[in-house]
Amino acid sequence: MQKICTDIEINAPADKVWHILTDFENLSSWNPFMIVKKGKLEEGKRLEVTLSIPGSRPMTFKPIVLKVDPVKEFRWSGNMWIRGIFDGEHVFRIEKLDEHRTRLIQCERFRGILAPLILHLMKENIETGFEKMNRSLKNVSEKVSKAHT
């Protein structure tokens, strides 16, 4: 199993960060990496997600929401092509550091026959996509937070 994890500290309350991250209708206005095109953030529901991995063409897949713990964590599991070829479980974890600071942790665990090869070719680009998304979430969360103070 292979894993990619990134994290970022955000100067905004955890509930604001959560709201922005899970507002799928407005995700495309700030997120350069991941767009949720269809679906609801409810356990057992299927989403339609398009990833714009730097250096690659956009990819669309349909993960199933595994867990939703409001203002703390959500995760989904999906695959490319056929299950067992290149599968991933993605998690977004929100850690409240204090009333005005939050840490976002974004991780994906990859499995499947082609996971080692695909990650050998794309790991750096996937990690760059995670980091771009994290920075964008930080920027928009901090702007919204400052506007409400």
The class by helix and strand makeup works out as: alpha+beta
The CATH topology annotation reads as Alpha-D-Glucose-1,6-Bisphosphate, Chain A, domain 4
What is the arithmetic mean of pLDDT?
Answer: 93
Count of individual beta strands: 8
With helices defined by DSSP (H or I, 4 residues minimum), what is the helix count?
2
Low-confidence stretches: none
Tell me the Rg in angstroms: 15 Å
The CATH class is Alpha Beta
Domains (count):
1
What is the CATH-assigned architecture? 2-Layer Sandwich
Q: Strand order, biggest sheet? A: 1-8-7-6-5
- CATH homologous group name: START domain
**How much strand?**
35-45%
Series of H and E elements: EHEEEEEEEH
Spatial separation of the terminal alpha carbons = 44 Å
Shape from CA axes? globular
Helical fraction: 25-40%
Q: What's the story with the biggest beta sheet?
A: 5 strands, antiparallel
Organism: Methanolobus zinderi
Protein name: SRPBCC domain-containing protein
InterPro entries: Polyketide_cyclase/dehydratase (IPR019587), START-like_dom_sf (IPR023393)
Summarize the structure.
The protein is of the alpha+beta class. This is SRPBCC domain-containing protein.
Descriptive notes:
InterPro entries: Polyketide_cyclase/dehydratase, START-like_dom_sf. This is SRPBCC domain-containing protein. With 149 residues, this protein is α+β, with helices and mostly antiparallel strands. It has a single domain (2-147), classed as START domain (Alpha-D-Glucose-1,6-Bisphosphate, Chain A, domain 4). Helices cover 28% and strands 40% of the residues. It is built from two helices and eight strands, in the order βαβββββββα. It has helices spanning 14-22, 115-147, and strands at 2-10, 34-38, 48-51, 59-61, 64-69, 73-80, 86-98, 101-111. The chain has a five-stranded antiparallel beta sheet with strand order 1-8-7-6-5, with helices on one face. Helix 1 packs across helix 2. It starts with a strand and ends with a helix. 23% of the residues are buried. The mean pLDDT is 93.
